[in-house]
Fold each of these.
Amino acid sequence: MKNIPFIIAFLLCFCGFSQTEKHQDIKTTIKEVTVFQSNAQVTREKSVDLFAGETILKFINLSPFIDAKSIQVKADGAVTILNVSHQQNFIDKLEKQKELVTLESKLIEITTKIELESTLIEILKEELTFLNENRNIGGKNESLTVTNLRETATYYSSRLTALKLKEIERNQTLSKLKNERRDLENQINTFTSKREYPNGEILVKVASKNNSKVTFEISYIVGNAGWFPSYDIRAKNVNEPIELIYKANVKQDTKIDWKDVKLKLSTANPTVSGIAPELKPYFLNYNLAPPVYKLESNSVSGIVTDGSSPLPGASVIVKGTTIGATTDFDGKYSISIPNGARELVFSYLGYVTKTVSIDKNVLNVQLQEDASTLDEVVVVGYGTKKNNSISQILQGVVPGVKIRGAASIEIPVEQIENQTSVDFEIKMPYTIKSDNKSYAVDISNYSLAADYQYYSVPKINKNAFLMANITDWEKYNLLEGEANIFFEETYIGKSLLDVRYAKDTLQISLGVDKNIQIEREKITDFASKKFIGSRKEELRNWKINIKNNKNQQISMVIFDQIPVSVNEEIKVEILNISGANHTLETGELKWIFKLNPKESKVFDLKYTVKYPKNKNLLIE
């Protein structure tokens, strides 16, 4: 009991000390955004007037998707940062977008009008029913005169006409209102999320010896943002350089608009007729079938839904690459698939990310809502605790505050090569709204000297693919991505710019040229089978015809193959390959030649296969 006065005095002193703690709510503006392949780093800045002593600064109206571990704070002035923490404010939630609020208000208004018109139509129907049920005007003891009949018929006709016309008018109004409601609902559905989100907040406890004005810079990683590259490739003809427009497709749904920010894009990550086919080695052995080529379109398309409605703006990425696409208003997508790709990754705000195997050309995907919600949890340093008072949150000094700075480079686009990534700094301020829509940002425009050559594997595909071969491509820091191809001022379609496997020369496929005619036919008159002693001998003969229907000379390469024996009993003898370059290990044949306008060439491919007559061998 003797200690009670001492405890009370201590608590009174502690309370008095707590009351000296000052609090400020700080609204900041976004200074810079660095967008990664996935996620983004947001940098904000604000000058704050501080009084002497300790102050808790609460930076408010931030994204609810902040990664607390990534928060960095820089103070430019005579001030000591004592603590930094992060929390979600579920009371003062982020405001919905003004456009969404306006649309929802109109939807409520239209819905009310629809209910009113429906009620008026029901009243008209009741009046029509009443009028029809009371058409009999004569009673049991009353005689019906001609005058009464005429008056009644006139009243009934005029009233019935008025009611029917009114019903038609009401139904027309109702139909118009329903169309307006449908359009409003469709427009509202373009917004990725219509629910309210908590207000992200960063709390910074500082100590200042004197009254001063201090500039604070805070930065953090935020989710629901990213970018992927795409290209426009333009070739006027085979005698001029290629124009390559390097674009970034930036999208974000952090619930905070990025208005006139300094934008930096980083390669770091915290219908495709233009893809030429490839030959497989043709190994020859007993009971071994020749290689089978399945002609694929090298593209996947489909619809992404939540089970009941489409999801516009959903991300579709080829797993392990930067090749991506987004769904349109109807939830539809189409994406180019590089050779060897196996999986697509589908993601959408508020839904569980889904990885799907590429086993067909049409993949319709249904995403499930993410059951996890943003709990009311405050992050202190690198740990978590339940929401308490601000004073309780910021007791003690927590490490992890990092100081950093960044330089501004005043040029349109600067490529900065880091150890493991490349940054593209863009001078022109950009505004990226939080609507999950893709915004195209031009990174660079290159004029690339190219060596043009037509490429064909008629055994698989009889089309001639125009390939542009580019050297010294590494200096442009290109990423794999889809490319829109324009040749001779005409849009041809999509192709892939895949730099992952490129070596000294980068090949860009410019699509199929229908002015190059190619045929590969089997000469059946020369296909034979005969027995010589204990062995069988089979002859195969193929002819490849190429014609240049263009008005200019072209350079071309044709691929075919000779089977390769992997058994000593099987002998392959080449009779004629028309001067092709022959790779013994794989059996690949390659003809490189030029064709003048309207000129034709014929290549002859003839070989025999000898093997024991008591064996069976599948020969193409």
Amino acid sequence: MPVTEYLERNAKLYPDEVALVELNPEQQETARVTWKEYELIQPTDTQAYRREITWKVFDEKANRLANMLISRGIKKGNKIGILMMNCLEWLPIYFGILKAGAIAVPLNFRYTSDEILYCSNLAELDILFFGPEFIGRIENIEAQLQKNRVLIFVGDTCPTFAEDYRSLTADYSGTSPNVEISDDDYGAIYFSSGTTGFPKAILHKHRSLMHAAAVEQKHHSTGRDDCFLCIPPLYHTGAKMHWMGSLVAGSKAVLLKGTKPQYILQAASDEHCTIVWLLVPWAQDILDALDRGDVKLSDYKLDQWRLMHIGAQPVPKSLIKRWLEYFPKHQYDTNYGLSESIGPGCVHLGVENVHKVGAIGLPGYGWECKIIDEKGEIVKQGEVGELCVKGDGVMVCYYNNEEATNEVLKDGWLLTGDMGRQDEDGFIYLVDRKKDVIVCGGENLYPVEIEDFLMKNDAIKDVAVIGLPDKRLGEIEGAIIEVKEGMTLTEDEVNEFCLQLPRYKRPRKIIFAPVLRNATGKIEKPKLRRLYGQEHLVDFENQD
């Protein structure tokens, strides 16, 4: 069963209920505008610019897009790209592509022109939908893009080199095209985050999408009365698959454009959100704002907020301890996943296991896990090895990259590249990315362990530990530390704080600088190594 059937069911059962809300706190509208299907509501001084769409209109817009694509010869196997910021049009376009039987290919909104062209060629796109934020980048490569594909603009003023989404779809039927889709049909291509190199194209079947929807609804018990606040980018599997819990439940979701603490709290308050998925930096920002008194919980209505969960990167224990001090009634969950495993949920903590915070958890619903050594043998309990997962959400392959596929798919198991260990209760703890392990004088050091320790320092907002080149030891531990606003921290103070660590785990180089993270919250360690690795090597060589 494809996930598109959930959309059609919701349109029949709850046609006039709100499916999606878009909030843009930074946009100020001075007039009330009504379109045929969208209502733009003029905000007061305290109300955000807001758009909403019902389940019926959501389904109709997806159908119109699907019928338009089919009229242009699009069929199963064709690939359609989406390069857009989060907005009310995003998901109807995605589902319209699926309903046409085509393969949806979301692109990272941070891609440069060259990366857009590279990924479009790698995925062999036939059509690319793009938003107003990308006109300049598309214009730079428009001639190369248009050699093999159609460009469709989604916005108010269509550039001359593209076709207009609204005019193209306006006159097509809003009824289902009734394209038969099976679980074994290809449904989507997602790109790896690029934290371990240039993005790879990850091909998934419809079975993966359906599995992700079931996993999310099961893990977080999403019901009809819930409202999910979605902040991360929809191009990534994380945000979209968490939203699919709302799709299964037939409940409202809110797309928030902006990550400031007051935006998040105001949106949760105004829209009566019950489930909020945050990335570590956003949760830290909320806590820091509360500590400073910049925001006050008494200014918001948050009694209905029942669950806060985090994914995409290791979560410091100290962060959740602080969170529960401010929000003692909240359920909390950690979600682990990869785009290769259709996003979050192949391992999850579970709201009933908050006493195990620090672990990523147990195998998720419908998933199997094991931890292996370099020979592929399961390690003993407590030993470190590579985490492998198996289930219906595992990718088909890296599209057009057989060599990379064979490196990570073994007899149905996906080798995640993450190093982990299991405790006596079976809970899995991430130690680090396999490629991020620091080998210092023959000793394996796991940066996440050092990062978790440093995050206990009240003055540290964020930290990344990387390997820096060293002629004698091969690599040494370098800590990039981002200090909280309004606080100070010296290298001597960091070194004194680290006396609690075993000597071999203490950072040998302290760098005070911003910690670079991508749009899904993952630390961009390859960039940090490129940025500071050569600099450190030059410094070292100058000492000779």
Amino acid sequence: MTSGAHTEVTVSPSGAGGPEKALLRFLTCGSVDDGKSTLIGRLLYDTQLVLEDQLTVLERDSRKHGTTGEELDLALLVDGLQAEREQGITIDVAYRYFSTQRRAFIVADTPGHEQYTRNMATGASNCQAAVILIDARKGVLTQTRRHSYICSLLGIKHVVLAVNKIDLVDFSGERFHHIVADYLGFAKALEFSSITPIPLSARYGDNVIRRSEHMRWYEGPTLIEHLESLDVEEEIEEKPFRFPVQWVNRPDLDFRGFSGTVASGRVRPGDRVVVAGSGRESTVSRIVTADGDLAEACAGDAVTLTLADEVDVARGDVLAQADSRPEVVDQFAAQVLWMIEEPMLPGRSYLMRIGTRFVPARITSLKHKTDVNTLEHIAAKTLQLNEIGFCNLGTATPVAFDPYAENRETGAFVLIDRFTHATAGAGMISFGLRRATNIHRQALLVDKTARARLNGHRPAILWFTGLSGSGKSTIANIVERELHALGAHTYMLDGDNVRHGLNRDLGFTDADRVENIRRVGEVARLFVDAGAIVLCSFISPFRAERRMVRELVDAGEFVEVFVDTPIEECKRRDPKGLYARALEGKIKNFTGIDSPYEPPESPEVVLETRDGPEQAARRVLDALREQHIITY
């Protein structure tokens, strides 16, 4: 049993003299109003890190925004955003530093509100331990389970179960033990290395730094005693050497180095390293810093490495220990936490950042999502905001990684929305998928250029997009007729026609629409490779998928034709009676009625309602001549 003596606290800013203290990074998390900010405020206040002018501001703000009557509202020491103070919730992730004689701490106060779960995941990503708060009156809530599960996914092994506001249940040991039993029953599947329950009152300081006089039934440590003694050494320096290259440093013709931060392991001059992607080996010649060369660099050191051989290395490449290489594949399985309002759609192209590399990536399939209450696996086709799923992903080119369970630095990635540039998801790689390791591209003796030369024109995709009833197929048919008469090699892919064969298994959900265009795009690329002009007439409501098809072919080989017919005119025409049925509720997910259409932002050709079909077709042909796709 730990002594109940008061823990002496000293202020020791980072970089101060004296022996270096071990650093513990931990986060506080839990549901709204569980007292996370108050707990951190208590730690700062009791460790005498609140200066006089800050105390004056705190007294003023406590009267204006506080929730503790005449007492200081210690939560306001952390809730710095005006919106947070007014709403009484934490929105952003706040980081605070404090120190005792035994240890230094960096604590992240993360949001409890479900809307800001993504912020909580950001705070947890670089922490070694978690303090999960539970309101003693409310017990284990959904957000408690969600945060615990995210902590487990992110590799946090040590948890403090802080049953807060114990004063509001009369310091009841029975209530405390009931909550602990409930939580342990849920958390046994999360594989934490340690779970330490502590009853406390952040508002009054019971069992935070000083042992409570109100809970003599509790014989465990105070929160600070436990955090001081927690062993969280990850030995990241003992893991295999990994060095994501951030910058190729070439100040003059006589120096070529590779700059970045050592992600794991250590490296010395003379060590054999390998470029993970290409497999090319070399030897480290120097470890260069602004203060001179080093004899050794360890995890966390920002350095520039020079190599003995001229090997091809670029930003995003990973230098690795030659006899312990990371996996390099273009398909892998991962846990993904979805972080934006727009749902995750399998097949849609996102931008993945892994290490220092950016690469186009798609979630090829969602195997299941996880119910955070029961940890059960649930069948699903998409992920919504704050949902967590186990997915298969594919990247445009192979990437180097270690499973997240083995190396948090090289096994994590984020997915970025390619239009809004928002962080769409955070992922933790589980394992590589080696399904296609025996498949290689066959070198062909006749290539696209040779086929195009024989055809007498450049290959291209003419992509007609617009609402149902806009006239896309009518115009595309006329364009193909005219191209055929001119001797061009063409083929027409129409939205309705491909759903009778290639895409007959797809419906009209957003996920199915994405897959519909992905398949058509791949087929269209084959026609371009054959040297033909392929005309594609599809509503294709989402910009992301039209951009995806554009990126499948070379520059100048994708011509986007926007048939800009207003929806009222489309409803008036309604050649197939679809709008009438959709307005009656007989057709669901109909574009323009209950499913969105995203107009092109920079199409090569815009056709308006006043253009008759024949005139519109002539404008398309003129555009093909202007872009030198046809010359006759």
